[in-house]
Amino acid sequence: MHNALLQRAITICSQKKLRFTAIRQRVFLLMLEQKGAVSAYDLLEQLQKHDSGAKPPTIYRALEFLLEHHFIHRIESLNAYLKCEHFGCEHPMQLLICEQCKQVIELSDPVIDNAFSEQAEQSGFKITNKILEAHGICHNCLYNEPPL
Predict the structure, then answer these.
(1) Residue 132, beta-bridge partner list
(2) 72-75 and 80-83: which strand pairing?
(3) What's the CA gap between 131 and 142, in Å, rounded?
(4) How many helices (H) and strands (E) does the chain have?
(5) Which of 5, 26, 124, 148 is least crowded, fewest Cβ atoms below 10 Å from its Cβ?
(6) What are the backbone angles phi and psi of residue 135, rounded to the nearest 5°?
(7) pTM of this structure
(8) Per the database entry, which stretches of residues form a coiled coil (predicted)?
(9) Where do you find CATH 3.30.1490.190 in the chain?
């Protein structure tokens, strides 16, 4: 499955004439392997298993590329990254973050996005970066069920 997603990412980059280097591809694959949010330093540790010379700037440059081209999301409140379920295109995004198990659920609801943007506009506010994050307790933690 990861190979099919990698191929899709390669195709998107080719169509947009973006340089999807070997390091960027490796970091993208590492992101695909994550079950949830992951820190840059955890990713760096994993990357160093494949490239012992990888340093913090290596991972941050790759993450910056993946963010800029909508392959991943940055979770500001956790200082972590999350693979994008709808990668390769800009789309509305809202994140539900469980405070207990740290599971992150990505929503992509244009109604929420439009309502938020309209409220900002009515308040005379120009949004330049929109990340909607809500913290709470997921269904599994609320009812003491093991995570999926």
Answers:
(1) 94
(2) antiparallel
(3) 25
(4) 6, 5
(5) 124
(6) -100, 145
(7) 0.84
(8) none
(9) 94-142
Tell me which amino acid residue 26 is: R
Contact 59, 81 (CB under 8 A): no
Residue ranges, comma separated, of all CATH 1.10.10.10 domains in the chain are 2-83
Q: Looking at the domain 94-142, which fold is it?
A: Dna Ligase; domain 1 (3.30.1490)
Q: Six-digit token pair at 69?
A: 């081209």
Please give the class, per CATH, of domain 2-83: mainly alpha
Residue in this structure with the two tokens 């997603």, named with its chain if needed: 5
Instruction: Find the DSSP H helices in 40-95.
Output: 40-47, 56-68
Other CB atoms within a 10 A radius of the CB of residue 12 amount to: 17
**Site of tokens 């070997």:** 22
The two three-digit tokens of residue 95, written as one number:
């994140």
Residue pLDDT, tens place only, 116-142 = 999 999 999 999 888 899 999 999 999
Contact 84, 94 (CB under 8 A): no
